[in-house]
Amino acid sequence: MGSLTGGQPAMLDIEELLATRLLVQGNSGSGKSHLLRRLLEQSAQWVQQVIIDPEGDFVTLSEKYGHLVVDGERSEAELAGIGSRIRQHRVSCVLSLEGLDVEQQMRAAAVFLNAMFDAEHEYWFPVLVVVDEAQLFAPAVGGDVSEDARKMSLGAMTNLMCRGRKRGLAGVIATQRLAKLAKNVAAEASNFLMGRTFLDIDMARAADLLGMDRRQAEMFRDLKRGNFVGLGPALSRRPLPISIGEVQTQARSSSPKLMPMPEAVADVEDLIFTPDPEEFSRLTARRTRPAPRPTTDILAELSRATPMADQPLVKPVQSGAPVLSAKEREQRLADVLSEILADPQSAYRTDALLYQDFLVRARMRRVSGPPMPMGEFRRRVAVIRSGVDPETAASEAWATALALSAGVSEDLQGVFLMLANAALHGDACPSDARIARAYGTHSARRARRLLGYFEEQGLIIVHADFSGKRIVGIPELQAETAPGAADAAENDGSAQAAE
């Protein structure tokens, strides 16, 4: 990587790095990008590399080291396909997000990283995944971007740093400030390279990560550009100052340098105030493209569309589709929903895919009228997954449960309504496996976190009986579940209730 204080070479163990990940921190101008470039150049011949590049600085690696440059201004389907093939064929690449706004950058990076994360097991080759300006993709707090984009990007970064090791993905993230980076992302790194920083809170956190006394934190103010303090199993067992070595390629952008002012021009007013005829064509060419339309809007529009042709290919049997009564239409919609959710794998499909399937099947059943909005579709799916019977669904207590569920996000409503239904009937508390399935995951740990979240919101109270079985009470309903084993199998609910 460079040299130590005494002139000895500063070495970094790539194999150890693949298993332990790396966090680089330093203020703007401290040399983070130079460090990342040095790391990439030195390891290019040994390991596949993928760089998430928000500024387009690393595209110059393609000239000397053959990295494929992937323009981020593509559809999500294209990016997902490219990310999958990148893993399959072991091609080093740079995902250039230059020119996109922050939300588009977050979405593009999330789709690309998730495609690499979801690759087939036979393609889990080791990959060094470098993310520059990581605070953009894993922010500690929400900003001006939509909550959907923030969750999507943060989830991809969490997968990379928390679960990527078993899939061969080794995250190397660089950030200007640790305070701006999500803690669950930063906490997964075991190697650290800390550069120049000036804020007290950042110096204190850097010192804590390196196991240094807080009185020694002042040293981070005095570090020169390109000098870092390293610690970790891939670097050193104790903090060591490292001076990063030279690089073979250069970024397209560079640090600003002083330049002499041009000589005074006599007709400066005409030069500034007279427009150039070519300016208008350049401004037209540089217009930003409109934001992509939501998928749900497109699907709803397609469901209303009718074929257009000058002459019909087949003579229609009747002038129009039969008009359904409200009761008949409702019955057909309910049948379509039940048919979709009867598939055991439907719990693990995204709402967008289920909604698309629903619209297609509704058209096949000749359901007339405007399509069901996405929000109502999600609501109905949550109610059906809760397992509520018609009699309970018509009760005042269930109306209260529906009102309470409106206070949580749409992806959590099905889980809460399932707990409410079990409490109203006095059934055994759902196991972690059943809760995880209702949420669309296989993770029992995530199921327990959901219960903790509901309890923090004041919606439920979780306690245990004398045998240690779990009970969930819902104060607003004045009801609670029967004791149930948290580690019971998914189909053990009826057995527990009988017992």
TrEMBL record:
Entry superkingdom: Bacteria
Pfam families recorded: DUF87
Protein name: AAA+ ATPase domain-containing protein
Species the sequence originates in: Hoeflea marina
Residue ranges of domain AAA+ ATPase in the record: 18-207
